[in-house]
UniProtKB/TrEMBL annotation:
Reported cofactor(s): Mg(2+); Mn(2+)
Upper lineage: Bacteria, Bacillati, Bacillota, Clostridia, Eubacteriales
Binding residue positions for substrate: 91
Name of the protein in its database record: Acetate kinase
Signal peptide: none
Major localisation: cytoplasm
Gene symbol of the encoding locus: ackA
Note on cofactor: Mg(2+). Can also accept Mn(2+).
Binding site for ATP: 14, 208-212, 283-285, 331-335
Species the sequence originates in: Heliorestis acidaminivorans
């Protein structure tokens, strides 16, 4: 079965295409600057030269048309004709409390995704544009929505209800949803495979550390708590997002700096995090370099970032009454020994002991010392494969 995976943003569309017989990636690509001048498509087939198309791409319909053209291209294509595509899986950021699993897309599902525009104004509208564009171009192909929030729907009420008046929480469905669910689920499953243990018997803490960062407590394969909340702004310190903060300080700042709601929202999402603390960059490579050269604010940003992750590890160990594995994933989690060391230093009380040599070796999966009671693992995430797997599973059984 051939599965196309689509991750549709407001001005970009990423895709990957898999042959699910061997879970083999055939090609991936990016349509960039949709509706903006200078738009292009870059198509990278496996073991073949890339195809780059530079032309005006006005909207998501054109982006999908161009994607299908690239996939069926005479030289750089990976399928002969578009009806070889058996199913399409879409990444959808917000499923609210309506979707606890991936689902085959119907008109009703599309309507529900649209009803969540209010809580995910940046992410759900482009996802629906991608879905509608595929439906127009490939009307006979089954489409599946895979939600970033779905994995966290198992979180108990005591962990997802905020201390607001209960009727207000209910009126606006204002609660913790959590994000990066596809990634947390994927690495938790991979960790169980690696440890050769049944996931139902494992207490895991998964740390997805990229530009956006979140952490999850996964008990017996189910998410029981996570750091992102109603939106992806809560929790860890991120590249440019503030994470946990006293809500009163926002009111204070709005008054002092004369900011309106829109300005405050943009400030909290784009100007804070390690960028705000360091004043230099949101990229951890820049910060690590500058910290080595003695830049205090860059070192401080790294320290604060690691400290916050460490605090959550302590909290989630308490929530689960112990932890068998701490898993690092995403750009920073997979690639920065420095950050992993700063986070896992002094976790002896959990029985987690970092092996410094292994931590510094690229490609090592287990980076804890032999005999460490709690394993520390580095597992590259693969959200697209997870979306393809869910799509395959649902189409097979539908
Ligand atoms: P997102 O998907 O949220 O945009 P990624 O998972 O791609 O983010 O992670 C991107 C971040 O990973 C970059 O901001 C960078 O700081 C960090 N990163 C990538 N490689 C390294 C590295 N070798 N050392 C330190 N940080 C790295």
């Amino acid at each position: 079965m051939i599965v196309l995976v689509i991750n549709s943003g407001s001005s970009s569309l990423k895709y990957q295409i898999f042959d699910m017989k061997e879970e083999q990636l055939l090609a991936k690509g990016l349509v960039d600057r949709i509706g903006i001048s200078g738009s292009s498509l870059t198509h990278q087939p496996l073991n073949k030269e890339a195809l780059v198309v530079k032309e005006d791409i006005e909207n998501h319909n054109q982006a999908i048309e161009l994607t299908v053209k690239a996939l069926t291209h005479q030289q750089q294509g990976v399928i002969k004709e578009m009806n070889e595509i058996d199913a399409i899986g879409h990444r959808v950021a917000h499923g609210g409390d309506r979707f606890a699993d991936s689902t085959v897309i119907s008109d009703e599902v599309s309507n529900k995704i649209a009803m969540l525009f209010d809580v995910a104004p940046l992410h759900n509208p482009p996802a629906l544009m991608g879905i509608e564009a595929c439906a127009r171009m490939l009307p006979k192909v089954t489409q599946v929505a895979v939600f970033d929030t779905a994995f966290h729907q198992s979180i108990p009420e005591k962990a997802y209800i905020y201390a607001l008046p209960y009727e207000i929480s209910k009126k606006y469905s204002l609660r913790r949803y959590g994000f990066h669910g596809t990634s947390h689920k994927y690495v938790a499953q991979k960790a169980a495979e690696f440890l050769q243990k049944d996931i139902s018997a494992l207490k895991l803490i998964t740390c997805h550390l990229g530009n956006g960062a979140s952490i999850a407590a996964v008990n017996g394969g189910k998410s029981v708590d996570t750091s992102m909340g109603f939106t992806p702004l809560e929790g860890l310190v991120m590249g440019t997002r503030v994470g946990d903060i006293d809500p009163a300080s926002l009111l204070f700042l709005m008054e002092k700096e004369n900011m309106n709601i829109e300005e405050m929202n943009s400030f909290l999402n784009k100007k804070c995090g390690v960028l705000g603390i360091s004043g230099l960059s949101s990229d951890f490579r820049d910060l690590e370099e500058a910290a080595k050269n003695g830049e205090h604010r860059c070192q401080l940003a790294l320290d604060i970032f690691a400290y916050r992750v460490k605090k959550y590890i302590g909290a989630y160990s308490a929530v689960m009454n112990g932890v068998d594995g701490i898993i690092f994933t995403a750009g920073l989690g997979e690639n920065s020994p420095t950050i992993r060391q700063a986070i896992t230093e002094d976790l002896g009380y959990l029985g987690a002991e970092l092996d410094h040599e292994k931590n510094n070796r690229r490609g090592e999966k287990e980076i804890s010392k032999q005999g460490s009671r709690c394993k520390i693992l580095v597992i590259p995430t693969n959200e697209e494969l997870m979306i393809a797997r869910d799509t395959f599973r649902l189409v097979k059984t539908s």
